[in-house]
Amino acid sequence: MNDNCVENKIFDYDFYNRVDVQKLIHQYGSPLYIYDENILRKSCREMKNLMQYPWFVANYSIKANSNMELLKIIRDEGLNADAISPGEIHVLLEAGFEPSQIFYVGNNVSVEEMKYAIDNGVLVSVDSLSQLEAFGKINKGGKVSLRFNPGVGAGHHEKVVTAGNNTKFGIDSSFIEEVKQIAEKYSLKVAGVNQHIGSLFLDGKPYIEGVKSLLAIAGNFQDLEFIDMGGGFGIPYKKQSQERLDLSLVSRELEKIIIEWMKVYGREVQIKIEPGRYIVAECGVLLGTVHSIKTNYGKRYVGTDVGFNVLMRPVMYDSYHEIEFFRKGKLLNSDKRGISTIVGNICETGDILAKDREIPDDLMEDDIVAVLDAGAYGYSMCSNYNLRLRPAEVLICEDGLVRLIRRRDTFDDLMAGYR
Question: In which family does this protein belong, per the annotation (predicted)?
Answer without folding.
Answer: Belongs to the Orn/Lys/Arg decarboxylase class-II family. LysA subfamily.
